[in-house]
Design brief:
By secondary structure, the protein is an alpha/beta fold. The protein has two domains: 3-177 and 346-373, 3-Layer(aba) Sandwich (Rossmann fold), CATH 3.40.50; 179-343, Glycogen Phosphorylase B (Rossmann fold). 41% of the residues lie in helices and 16% in strands. It has 16 helices and 13 strands. It has helices at 12-18, 72-86, 98-110, 122-128, 132-136, 138-147, 158-164, 207-214, 230-240, 258-262, 278-285, 298-302, 313-324, 327-343, 346-362, 365-373; strands at 3-7, 34-39, 58-63, 90-94, 114-118, 150-153, 170-172, 194-198, 220-224, 246-249, 266-269, 290-293, 307-309. The strands form two sheets. It has a seven-stranded parallel β-sheet. Strands 10-9-8-11-12-13 form a six-stranded parallel β-sheet, sandwiched between helices. Helix 12 (298-302) links the parallel strand 12 (290-293) and strand 13 (307-309). Helix 8 (207-214) packs parallel to helix 9 (230-240), helix 8 (207-214) packs across helix 13 (313-324) and helix 11 (278-285) crosses helix 14. The longest helix has 17 residues, at 327-343. The two termini are 34 Å apart. 45% of the residues are buried.
Length: 380
């Protein structure tokens, strides 16, 4: 019986609200028989609402409440006791902060391997977001990354950050995108051409840059996502007089997002910082030419199969205009992007992650060191 205990950074009801129910997210290759989610909130969704995340494994959810700075120390004992009763084969914790530190502490106390996944370069985040809280959590990052059995990085770019905070064994497993979902011929049927962006509408993603970029052109822009900037963006659209060419669409479930990619002509992403960037890889899988800011790790994901520009509206405007005028180049870039995405198929990532779990459960230190030394084997 292979049993996984998961400590996600977000409550599961947020996964449901955002439509982020990717199949086998915590059960790569149907590796586990049981999955127990230790949710850091007081009330959660029913297991059947998120069963897709566990594949065919039996799914159990254990809400334990949200720790605060005053109660976090008590949560280390509480979560360790719960995980001890669950007797998992391995612990998976998301992020280097409270969830990661809780998982690492439980693993060390119980003698259970703990895999910590990191999804963002937190020092890059801090250079953009000056909130004091982001600086106060640095000790948790040092503790979590230094003591994790292994650190799963969702891009090669994150290795340097993890190493800086003491990680010893790192491995890259890209966020999973399945090209089969995006099979078909991309391209809008109506003129003018359509630029698509899929993102949270927040300052990190800078959707305003893309609205300003398409304003001087005879192009349409579709922004798929929700966020704090929604009202401000609607005002900007009115100010620029592009209400007839800019469309804001709220959250779309992952199971339906491919229809928006396949209905577009160009994909765009302007972002200040990233740990990965799933929409870029989804657009590549759909065969869309990608225009993106040079923000790491986007160049790593594209692998040369896209256009990288300065993070300025004028730079995006020029790139859009060039692609709009050159259908052959759009087709060539789209084909290269699709080929690149196929080499990063989510099934390959599942195999890589399952291999890592197997080595961790076996507690084979030599095999783990070898696996992590070859960390970039599937994502070069």
């Amino acid at each position: 019986m292979k049993r996984l205990a998961v400590i996600p950074a977000d409550p599961l009801y947020k996964y449901v609200a955002k439509g982020e129910l990717k199949p086998r997210y915590w059960n790569p290759g149907e590796f586990f028989d049981e999955i127990h989610v230790v949710s850091l909130c007081a009330d959660e969704v029913a297991p059947e609402q998120v069963q897709a995340l566990a594949g065919r494994a039996k799914l159990y959810i254990h809400p334990v409440g949200r720790p605060t700075p005053m109660t976090l120390a008590w949560y280390y004992r509480k979560v360790s006791r719960l995980i001890g009763n669950l007797a998992p084969s391995v612990i998976r914790a998301h992020g280097p902060w409270h969830s990661g530190s809780l998982g690492v502490h439980a693993g060390r106390r119980l003698g259970v391997p703990c895999l910590v996944s990191i999804h963002n370069e937190m020092d890059a985040t801090r250079s953009f977001d000056r909130r004091l809280l982001l600086r106060l959590v640095r000790p948790l990052e040092y503790y979590t990354l230094r003591h994790a059995s292994a650190v799963l990085c969702v891009s090669n770019y994150l290795h340097e950050y993890a190493s800086r905070y003491g990680a010893q064994r790192m491995i890259t497993v890209y966020n999973k995108v399945y090209p089969d979902q995006f099979a078909g011929q991309a391209g809008s049927e109506a003129a003018p051409l359509q630029v698509l962006a899929v993102m949270r509408l927040d300052p990190q993603k800078d959707p305003e840059c893309l609205i300003r970029a398409v304003a001087p052109l005879k192009l349409r822009l579709k922004l798929v996502g929700k966020g704090e900037l929604e009202g401000r963006l609607k005002r900007l659209v009115r100010e620029l007089g592009v209400e007839d060419r800019v469309e804001l669409i709220p959250m779309v479930p992952n199971s339906q997002i491919h229809t928006h990619y396949l209905g577009a002509d160009i994909f765009a992403m302007a972002t200040h910082y990233e740990g990965f960037c799933i929409p870029v890889l989804e657009a590549m899988a759909a065969g869309l030419p990608v225009v993106a800011s040079q923000t790491p790790p986007i160049p790593e994901i594209l692998g040369g199969a896209g256009l990288l520009v300065e993070h300025r509206p004028e730079a995006f405007t020029r790139a859009f205009a060039e692609l709009a005028a050159d259908p052959e180049r759009r087709s060539r870039l789209g084909a290269a992007a699709r080929e690149r995405a196929a080499s990063l198929d989510g099934r390959r990532m599942e195999d890589r992650e399952a291999e890592l779990y197997q080595v961790l459960i076996a507690k084979d230190r030599a095999a783990l060191e070898l696996l992590c030394a070859d960390a970039r084997r599937y994502v070069a």
